[in-house]
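Bumping my old thread because nobody answered last time. Still need a sequence for this structure:
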């Protein structure tokens, strides 16, 4: 009389044989190593960032009262932003976002920088900018605050960074200066590579783009 082996028991024996087989484990390990490699091969690298313009050479005065400009930024990726210390509208939020960016850039401080340009040089003296830098816990090895005569500032912002700059006007009981609240990404050659808002998604994209430019430079 033929003995019928329940299918469940047969499957159990088959699994035991597979698990005890060296060939099974060799194939399993090979698959586990091969899968991420294949996945990385198939993953497309992002397109290079466009070149949107060139920032001309400039020399302003930093928060320590010393000359600082494009020569000091050569070979570094930097983020330009535009503020004035008495601003009560967009600047506080912008500076807080820049402070966050500074923290996230702590691993590349030898290859990246942040530059805050004052749009109110009449009031934003080096001493005033120094106080603002300390208030923001700005690392002087990364984040500098710059000022220059208004005509020089306007020329650099409008013609160089391609951002608007309005005249100082009375808004309510305070003086205001219409200016861009964008972050401008500039590469090691002084080329503009992107404009970013202070929204979370844009800040995250900015940090990715900073890494792409730095790593692209390293690979050359």
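Sorry it took so long. Here it is:
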């Amino acid at each position: 009389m033929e003995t019928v082996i329940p299918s469940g028991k047969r499957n159990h024996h088959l699994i035991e044989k597979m698990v005890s087989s060296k060939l099974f484990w060799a194939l399993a390990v090979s698959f586990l190593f091969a899968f991420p490699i294949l996945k990385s091969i198939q993953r497309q690298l992002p397109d290079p960032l466009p070149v949107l313009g060139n920032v001309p050479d400039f020399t302003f005065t930093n928060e320590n009262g010393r000359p600082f400009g494009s020569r000091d930024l050569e070979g570094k990726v930097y983020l330009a932003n535009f503020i004035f210390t008495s601003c009560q509208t967009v600047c506080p939020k912008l500076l807080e976002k820049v402070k966050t960016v500074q923290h996230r850039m702590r691993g590349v401080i030898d290859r990246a920088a942040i530059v805050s340009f004052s749009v109110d040089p009449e009031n934003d003296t080096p001493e005033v900018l120094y106080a603002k830098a300390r208030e923001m816990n700005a690392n002087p090895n990364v984040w500098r605050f710059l000022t220059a005569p208004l005509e020089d500032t306007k020329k650099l912002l409008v013609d160089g960074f391609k951002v608007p700059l309005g005249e100082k006007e009375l808004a309510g009981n305070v003086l205001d200066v219409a200016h861009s609240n964008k972050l401008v990404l500039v590469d090691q050659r002084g080329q503009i590579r992107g404009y970013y808002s202070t929204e979370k998604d844009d800040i995250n994209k900015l940090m990715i783009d900073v890494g792409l430019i730095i790593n692209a430079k390293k690979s050359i």
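The two ends are 78 Å apart (CA to CA). Let me know if any region looks off to you.
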